[in-house]
Amino acid sequence: MNSADVKKLVLEHEDYLVHMRREFHRHPEVSGKELHTREILIREIESMQIPYKMLKGTGIIAIIEGGKPGKNRLLRADIDGLPVQEEAENLKQKKECVSEVDGVCHACGHDAHMAVLLGTMKVLSRIRDEIEGTVYCCFEEGEETNCGIDTMIEALEEYKIDECFALHVYNGLDAGKVNVVPGPRMAGTIGIGIYLHGKSGHGSRPDQAVSTIIPAAHIITQLNSAFMNQLNVEETVTLGLGMLRAGEATNVIPDEAYIGGTARFFNWDEGEKALKIINRISENTAACHNCTVTYQYRHNISPYPVVNDEGVALRVQEKIGELCGEEVLGDCDRWFASECYSAYLRKYPGALGFLGIRNEEYGSGAAHHNGKFDIDESALTLGVCAEVGFILSKQGE
């Protein structure tokens, strides 16, 4: 099929894309509990007569075998919502569709991700004879909490996969634009969770206690200084400490303090260096004050940054231009949010594209994870074109 025929086939599914996005949007489920969401996905996959595998938890891998020999490729969509109360209006007016579940909504766009991948599967089913190799369509459980990524990666060990691709809707890019470029695109995260242990005592005799508050304060100021002076200034690493918790009474010195936060980075080496700095300062400072340190389970790097393979990104970019015209290729900066899709990119060469959803006239463009978050649904067909373009692009070109 030529590019015009492929795009025409995609546009035939526009109503389906909007319908599915709204069905998912009305019935969001939080990470690890996407049972009804999985039922909807299975209903749609079975209606296409595509074989699939249900994973432990709520994840699914659907398998489309192409009509020609070739490399095997992977597409991915995440399926969970957020524990966020949705607002009925976006930045300008009443939304087209609102969550019917109190306190839960798709405030990050995973409803759109699922709809786009289902639409892509419908198109691929129609042009199966044109497809080289096998396409693995992964619907991943619990991206927001990373609770499903290990199960998915383990399940994929069963298959030979050569490349991967995924989309994330993005409020920083206009609807009608898609961005697929090489290099770092989303940040890695260092979870910071430090417990300081000392000895409690009466506030009138601090010499008879071992305060955890004083070393906690020193750790915070020393971390801020170290990040400015010991990390490469050309490689951005942010430090966001959001919690200091210690004590319950003004005249009691507590025996425990907790420091919590995150650091974000795009360069793997600098991220690992930053974690070593955090640990060294915490342990040495605590020791100077006769305290000890233990770390929370989340005190590690997870996930790593999303770094697009140059060859895959440029090839997909070129194919999108062929299908939809060069004018749909938009520019945007790196995103400091994190994405466990990085786990796929650590195993396979691939790319993550940003799908624009901002429309000032309609009112979409609010920050992700926000009650006013909304998308311009006209973006969905471009998302399908991008995913189909990845599958149809020729490796090695």
Distance between the termini: 18 Å
Tell me how many strands there are. Answer: 15
Indicate the structural class: alpha+beta
Strand residue content: 15-25%
Helicity range: 25-40%
Q: What's the Cα radius of gyration?
A: 24 Å
Mean pLDDT: 97
* Principal-axis shape: elongated
Give the strand order, joined by hyphens, for the main sheet: 1-2-4-3-5-15-6
Output the number of helix runs: 10
Largest sheet: 7 strands, mixed
Which H/E pattern describes the elements? HHHEEEHEHEEEEEHEEEHEEHHEH
Spans of at least 5 consecutive residues whose pLDDT stays below 50 are none
Walk me through this protein's architecture.
This protein is α+β, with helices and mostly antiparallel strands and 397 residues long. Helices cover 33% and strands 23% of the residues. The chain has ten helices and 15 strands. The chain has helices at 3-11, 14-26, 35-47, 110-126, 149-156, 213-230, 268-288, 310-324, 342-345, 380-392; strands at residues 52-54, 60-65, 73-78, 134-140, 163-174, 178-179, 183-186, 188-197, 201-202, 237-246, 252-253, 256-265, 292-295, 306-308, 350-358. Strands 1-2-4-3-5-15-6 form a seven-stranded mixed beta sheet. β1 and β2 (60-65) form a beta hairpin. α4 (110-126) packs across α10 (380-392) and α6 (213-230) runs antiparallel to α7 (268-288). The protein is elongated and about 80 Å long.
